[in-house]
From TrEMBL:
Similarity comment: Belongs to the purine/pyrimidine phosphoribosyltransferase family.
Cofactor(s), names only, from the UniProt record: Mg(2+)
GO cellular component: cytosol
Recorded metabolic or biological pathway in which this protein acts: Purine metabolism; IMP biosynthesis via salvage pathway; IMP from hypoxanthine: step 1/1
Listed name of the protein: Hypoxanthine phosphoribosyltransferase
One Pfam family of this chain: Pribosyltran
InterPro entries named in the record: HGPRT (IPR050408), Hxn_phspho_trans (IPR005904), PRTase-like (IPR029057), PRTase_dom (IPR000836)
Keyword DNA damage attributed: no
Annotated SUPFAM superfamilies: PRTase-like
EC numbers for this chain: 2.4.2.8
Ranges for domain Phosphoribosyltransferase: 26-169
């Protein structure tokens, strides 16, 4: 695919992403097998993908997890300026109850931490048996709400805007097979 002129640099190419996602899948599988061994078939974990950015990551991740796993999706929108805490709105809720279920929240990128902090409270209140957080990218420069991530694909300390492999800017670039930083002047 021809690289768009707004792309500053590729941070992780397709091969690096695939290797890391397979490692994460293996690590998550080991942990669930160890902790849930005899209940895995009776009460499989639910991989909860946050729409829309995590769809591609979740599809690859669950195929790297050779254990019973269900999928569900939530969508949370944030309204507000970048510099101010946005107001979060639940746009799409889970289809099934999470009471007594083991949840693996799958997020594309954690930025301020607001979304995952909000979700942790909400899903705990609904009686989830356990909640683990898996983020493809942990972008720490603007963190406001501390979140404990159980599984992280890649860490980024700079405050760059990333696109590709599900991540978008104004709904563009989700289909790039790599993850890249956009040129700052392309982000308005
Ligand atoms: P948080 O609540 O500030 O952690 O926001 C997380 C959400 O913001 C992610 O699920 C993305 O939808 C979006 N986001 C934050 N940083 C980026 C980025 O660099 N590229 C694309 N989306 C981003």
């Amino acid at each position: 695919m021809k690289q768009a002129p707004e792309i500053l640099k590729v941070l992780w190419d397709e091969a690096a992403i695939q290797v890391r996602v397979r490692e994460l899948g293996a690590q998550i599988t080991r942990d669930y097998e160890r902790n849930l061994s005899e209940t895995l078939t009776r009460n499989p974990p639910i991989a909860v993908g946050l729409l829309r950015g995590a769809v591609i990551f979740l599809s690859d991740l669950i195929r790297a997890m050779p254990i019973p796993v269900e999928c569900d999706f939530m969508q949370i929108a944030s309204y507000g300026k970048d510099s101010k805490p946005g107001t979060l709105q639940l746009v799409r809720d889970l289809q099934n109850s999470v009471c007594e279920r083991h949840l693996l929240i799958v997020e594309d990128i954690v930025d301020t931490g607001q979304t995952l902090g909000h979700l942790a409270q909400k899903l705990t209140a609904r009686g989830a048996a356990s909640i683990r957080f898996c983020a493809l990218i942990d972008k720490t420069a603007r963190r406001r709400t501390p979140v404990e991530l159980d599984y992280v694909g890649f860490r980024l300390q700079e405050d760059a805007f990333l696109v590709g492999y599900g991540l978008d800017y104004a709904e563009k670039y989700r289909n790039l097979p790599y993850i890249a930083a956009l040129k700052p002047e392309a982000v308005i």
